[in-house]
Amino acid sequence: MITGAITVMIRGNVASLTRTIYEIVPGFIICWIVTYFVSIATYRPNAEIEKEFGEALELLKKDS
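Predicted structure:
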């Protein structure tokens, strides 16, 4: 939300940007990019989740 708000504030103060595209679009794109990189930077493997994911995949293979 912070990156979206900053994007909207910066975009709203630049006259050439206010005429090009609605402000929610660049805000959404920048928020998505920041979310992706924060997710990559803070990832920690969890054996319990990996095990549960593996079990779910096996169940899907049995049903197919």
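Summary: The chain has one domain: 2-63.
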